[in-house]
Amino acid sequence: MEKTVVIKNATGLHARPAGMFVKKASEFTSTVEVLAKGKTVNAKSIMGIMSLGLGQGEEIVVKAEGADDAAAVDALVELIESGFGE
Q1: Is 39 helix (H, G, I), strand (E, B) or coil?
Q2: What is the average pLDDT score of the chain?
Q3: FRET partner for 67 with CA separation of 20 to 30 A, picked from 5, 24, 32, 33?
Q4: Is the pLDDT of residue 73 over 90?
Q5: 14 CB-contact burial (10 Å; exposed 0-12 / middle 13-18 / buried 19+)
Q6: Could you tell me the domains of the chain?
Q7: 14 among known catalytic residues
Q8: Please, are residues 70 and 2 in contact by the beta-carbon 8 Å criterion?
């Protein structure tokens, strides 16, 4: 299962939103990855997410495989679309 989403919050995936994203991804048993800028990183790794340097308006793909993959992708896409409460 995968979905494409655009980063909406003004500051992009900096420390606080990246932390929220990793925490949410870690709630699921599925393998969760983020595809952006030609790279694939583990969505449960703060260093992986931060290494992408994602800013506002950038498009990413959230991809998950496993028992709760649909729920994981939906929850992470929802978090991104909410702008991380910013």
Answers
A1: strand
A2: 96
A3: 5
A4: yes
A5: middle
A6: 2-85 (3.30.1340.10)
A7: yes
A8: no
